[in-house]
Amino acid sequence: MGEMSWGAAVACLGAAVWLLGGRNSGARRAQLLLAGGGAVGAGPPGWRQMAGELRRLRGRLRAEWWAPVLGLVLGALGASVLPVVAGAAGVPLLRRVRLAREARRTRERCGDALIALCGALAGEVRAGRQPGEALLRAARDSGGLGRRS
Prior knowledge:
By secondary structure, this protein is mainly alpha-helical. The protein folds into two domains: about 1-60, no CATH class; about 65-149, no CATH class. The protein has helices at about 5-20, 25-35, 45-60, 65-80, 80-125, 130-140. The longest helix is centred in the last third of the chain and has 45 residues, at about 80-125. It is elongated, with a radius of gyration of 28 Å. The relative contact order is 0.06.
């Protein structure tokens, strides 16, 4: 059996286990046992539920988790293990890059908020307000002190 056949077999087996087990499969079995003759929805989930699960899964997976998927695809196409290993090794590196980018954006937003606060404070002081009152008004006008969004 070729490597591609094994990959297809594993994918089909995983889909079958997912469909038969599904979410809350224990609760579904308990409903079937304790239903008292009433009809309880049994069997695999419908297409809408599967599409919702896939959307939820896609939303939970960050961009770095697509590296092993891409490695698996390239490994299957090239019949090599190296892309799979590279994809798995790339997850922590890509996570660090993503977190560093988010931290940089947060720092830039905080810097922009500080510049806006200082500009508003300078304008209020130039307008003749006392520093305490000017700070209160500048904080209110620029969105507050110490708030992070």
